[in-house]
Amino acid sequence: MIVVVLFTLLLLAGILAATVRLSLGSRQNTADQAATLKAQYAAESGLALARSRIRDIQKLLTTNNITLPAGTLASTIEADAEKFCGNAVWTSVTTAGVTTRTCTAQASAASDQLSILNRALKSTAYAAVLPPEEARGAGTLEWWKSQIGQPVRLGSDSTEASYTIQPVKVEVVGTRYRFHLNLSQVTSRGESGAGTRLLTGQAAQGGGWWFDVSLPPFLDNVLFTNFHRTKGSSTPNIGFSNQVFDGPVHTNEKFVFYSDATASFRQKVTSAGCTNLATLPAGSATCTAQAGVYLGSNINNISLVTGTSAQVKSQIDSYTDVSWNSMEPGHPQFEAPYRPMPTTAETQKTAAQAGGLYLGPAGTSVRGIEFRAATDQSGTVPSTYDATTQSWTPAPTQQFITVTSNTGTKTVYRYASDRKLYKKKRGGWDWVKDNFNGVVFADGRVGARSFTGSKSEGLTGPGRDGSGRPYPALAPFAQMTVAGSADMYISGDLSMSQTPLTCDDTDADCIARNKQRTNVLGLYTQSGDIVITESAPSNLNLHAMVMSASGEVTVDNYQSSTYRGTVQLIGGLVENYYGGFGDRLETAYASGYGRDFRYDRRFQDIPGFGPPSYPVSPVWQAADAGSVGKRLDDFLWRQSRAGAP
After folding, report:
1. 426 burial level (CB within 10 Å; 0-12, 13-18, 19+)
2. 3 state SS of 24
3. CA quadruple 262, 265, 268, 271: dihedral positive or negative?
4. What would the mean pLDDT of 16-22 be, rounded to a whole number?
5. How many CB atoms lie within 10 A of CB 424?
6. What angle do CA 130, 136, 142 make, to 5 degrees?
7. On the chain, which terminus has fewer CB atoms closer than 10 Å, C or N?
8. In this structure, are residues 412 and 371 in contact, taking their beta carbons and an 8 Å threshold?
C-alpha cells in the first residue's frame, strides 16, 4: 500500500513538471512569434520607406520638373550623356532609315557624372517634391551622386533598409537624348528581440525609368503657321472654308473660321493664341497668349471669340459645319504651347560643309537643282509605275543631283545606297567623299521667278512620262535636305520612287508597309520665301517637308496666273506667314493652284524619322517614362534568410 502511494506521488510530480515545462515552452513560442512578427513589420516598414524615397527620385525626374534654358547647345547635352555613361563609347544601329546611338553606363568616380540632372531640373523642383529637411541640401552634384549610383541607406533602431538606383544607358535619336535608370536592388532588415526578418527586392520586368530632353524637329504637322495671316497683314486673315486636312494643324496665332465652313480636320488641331508675335524677341520660349478664334461670314466681317478650349469649340460648332475627326481626346486645343521658329540655318550649313554639298561661298546663287532617281550610272529613269505598290520599277539604284550655276554650268553628282558621292567628269566619275549625309546647302538663292527656257531652273525632278506621271526625283534609299539662306523656287515635280502611303489610323497593314519606305526630302530656307514658279506644271507633285522660317511658301502670281489644278503635297508645310496658292471665287479656283495636302505619317509613326539635319525648335522639350506606364518604384520582393544577401 505504501509503495502504491509513493508511486502515485512520483507520477503526479512528473506530470506536474511536464505541465510546467509545456507552459513555459508555450510562453516562449508566443514570445518568439511576437518578436518575429514585429521584425516582419519592421522589415516591411523599411521597404515602404525605401519605396517612398525611390518615388521621390522619380517625381523629380518627370516632365514638369525638367527644363533646359533656351540656347542650350546639343553639344552640351552630348557631353552630359557621355559623363552619365562614364565613357564616350557609342554604338549605332540604323532601322527604317533612323539611326539610334547608344552608350552603356559604367561605374564612374567622376563628381560630374550626373551633370545632366543638375542642369535639367528646375531649382523649384526639390522643395516641391522633398520634405523640407531633405530639400535644403538637395540639388547639387554631390547630392545627386549620393542618390544614384551607390547604395542609399535608411533605417532606425529596428529597421535597416537600402536601395540602389543605377544609370543604365543613354539613347540618342537626332536631337533627342533619353537617359535610362533602373533599380538594381532593395533590401530591408527588421529586428525585434530575437526575431530577425530580411526582405529583398528586384525591379519588376518592364520597370525602370527614363526621361528625355529633345529639340523637336518641325515634322509633326501637315500645316504649321507662325502668323496665321498673309505677309503684310496686321491681323489673322486666312479663313477655313471647305478644306480637308489629313494631318495635324497648328498655328502660334489664331485661326479664322467662316460661317459656311465645312472644313474637316482628321487629326489634332492646336493654336497658341499668341498676341505679341510681331514684337517677340527671336528665340523666346513663351508668348503672351489668349485662347480664341475669329468667326465671321467673310474676311471683312470677323469677330474674336475667346474662352477655354471647350468653350471656343462649342462656339465654332454652333456657327459652322466643321468636323473634328481627331482620335486624340481634348482636341481642338486653343491653349497649346507656343512653338518658336528656328533662328538660324547654321546647323544645315555646317552639315553640308562637313559631309554634304555646300554651294557657296555666301551669296552664291544657283539657277537650279535637279534630283533624279536612276536605274544606272547613265541616269536612266525607271520605266514603269506600279499603282498597286505605288512605286517605280525597276527600283532605282542611283541618286543623281545636277546643280546648274548662275552662269548655266551644270555639275552632276551621284551616289548609291553606300553613300559614296561621285562627280561626273568627261568619260567617267571622280570620287568626292564617303558617307554623304544628304544635306545640300545653297548659300544664296536657288532658282528665280523667270529664267528663260530650261525646266531645271529652280528645284525640280526629271520631268514626266508620256502619260503625264512625274518620274521619281528621289531613289528608295535617298534621304535629303535642301537648305538655303535666301529664296528658293520650285519649278517642277519632286516625287519619290516609293510614294509615301496615306494610311487610315486603323489600317495596320498599310502603316507597316509605309514604315518600310525610307526615302524622304526636306526643303528649308531660313531667311527667304519658297516660291512655286509660273513655269511649274499643272497638278504639281511635291513629296516633301517644306519650311520657310522667316517668309512664306507661296505660288508666284497666284492671283493672276492661269489655274493649274492642285499642289499635291505629301509631307507638310511650315511657314512664318500663310502664303497664297490660288485665288478662289465662290465655287472654284480662278488662278494659281488649289491645295491637296496630306501628312506624311511616317514622321509620327517612326520615332526619329525625317530629312537629315532638318530644322529643330530652339526650345528644349522634355518627356518621361510615365507616358508609357513605367515606374521606378515598381519592384517585387521576397523573404530571405536572415544574414543572407
Report:
1. exposed
2. helix
3. negative
4. 51
5. 17
6. 95
7. N
8. no
Range with lowest mean pLDDT among 7-11, 26-30, 290-294, 445-449 = 26-30
CA 454 to centroid of chain Cα atoms: 40
**Residues contacting residue 558 through CB under 8 Å, at least 6 positions apart:** 580, 581, 582, 583, 591, 592, 593
Give the list of residues 6+ apart from residue 279 with CB closer than 8 angstroms, or none.
Answer: none
Cell numbers representing residue 615 in the block? 530644322
| Cell numbers at 343, concatenated | 533662328
- 3-state percent helix, strand, coil for the chain, nearest multiple of 5: 20, 35, 45
Where in 388-478 does DSSP place strands (E)?
391-393, 398-405, 410-415, 421-425, 428-433, 439-442, 459-460
Which residues, in sequence order, are bridge partners of residue 411?
403
What is the per-residue pLDDT across 238-297, written as a single tens digit (0 to 9) for each?
Answer: 888 888 899 999 999 999 999 988 999 999 999 999 999 999 987 788 899 999 999 999
Q: How many residues does the chain have?
A: 645
C-alpha cell read off for 216: 523637336
pLDDT band at 642 (very low <50, low <70, confident <90, very high): low
SS3 640: strand
How confident is the model at residue 22, as a pLDDT?
A: 45
Could you read off the pLDDT of 330-339 as tens digits, one per residue?
Answer: 889 999 999 9
Beta bridge partners of 530: 488, 553
* Nearest Cα residue to 161 out of 115, 201, 203: 201
- CA-to-CA separations, 466 to 176, 463, 472, in angstroms, rounded: 45, 10, 14
HSE of 568, CA atoms in CB hemisphere, 13 A: 17
Within 10 A of 410 (CB to CB), how many other CB atoms are there? 14
Closest CA to 614 of 219, 77, 73: 219
Residues 6+ apart with CB under 8 A from 481: 348, 438, 439, 440, 521, 522, 523, 524, 611, 612, 613, 614
Q: Which SS3 state, helix, strand or coil, does residue 103 take? A: strand
Spatial contact of 229 and 255, defined as CB atoms under 8 Å apart: no
